[in-house]
């Protein structure tokens, strides 16, 4: 049985736990705020058009994470029993795997389009996506709930083995990097063929790719550093 925490240690755990909770809540608020301010454009450009497979992927990417976030916020603040927490604990990571699959399919379709359906490139990206999902599943099955001192509330996922979760973010970064550089290379080739007169669509794809890659790279780097060096009760920051 572990020795009881000193008042200073207990205060530190409580403070770190509050940081994780406030971070997750702020992320959730930003996510819903983005949905609210762009809802008019969504109705005009998505709802008023013919429903296709791409539309279905868009709706999954748009609303799956926000709906899952509601459950996650509840798990952070509601005093669940140990049994309930253990049944729930892998839900956020299962949600991440499904979300990663949806995003990966969208990226693969974009690569298919900008490479004019070149089968070898598409199969390469699809295999890379499958590898990313396999790594995520392997890493997340190592998850368990964090044991908190009596009086503190939160159902928080941590790894049984130090550092194993890092691989899921590395796998995601590898996939995103490959997609980004494939997009960049195709844009450069297209630019040379047109002697600098690139279309606005190609420029838009490259611009969005650069912005997405930069944001995701920073987020994944922060997550990796947290999992390697942060205390267990702070590891939830940027993990939900």
TrEMBL record:
One Pfam family of this chain: DUF6533
Keyword Membrane: yes
UniProt key word Mitochondrion: no
UniProt-listed InterPro entries: DUF6533 (IPR045340)
Ranges annotated as spanning the membrane: 20-39, 51-76, 88-107, 119-139, 166-189, 210-230
DUF6533 domain segment(s): 23-67
Keyword annotations of the record: Membrane, Transmembrane, Transmembrane helix
Protein name, entry field: DUF6533 domain-containing protein
